[in-house]
Amino acid sequence: MAPSYNFAIIRFAPDDVRGERLNIGAIILENDRIDVRTTRRLERVKALSEALDFESLAELIDNIVDLDAQNRADGIVDYQERLSKLARIGPLSVSHAGTFVAESQSAYEARIASILKMLVEPEQAPKRLRKKKSPLFSQIKRMFQNERVLARPAKVWSPIGLFLITN
Asked: How far is CA 36 from CA 22, 24, 65, 124, in A?
């Protein structure tokens, strides 16, 4: 039977009064360890807090592993209890637990990537279709300039100074 894993989403919420939060990573709990994965674009948290120091946030995320190791050393082995101990760490909070099954290491990594893509990473903006601009106008203008059909740019005097007017 394939092993099952419990996971939770790490949320950044700098101010509870404002109620703003941003999913920035995932915690995967195993019996003897914890796996913490964060978003590729951690700078997104600047949208919620300009006062944030990235080094402090990275240290806080790294401390999750140390806190869980300390909890396990204290005899807390149930994943619900482990998550409740990690529920609020400064501006970080943890969601309710979810579960997934993975038969191999590659299935484990694929499932984590899927969770991060679905719950943490921002969705891709739709691609905008751009009209291809024809070089015809530029070619005709260049031909007229070469044949000296178009007038040269005019120089105009104004009270401010001399200006060059181009088409």
From this structure: 16, 11, 7, 23
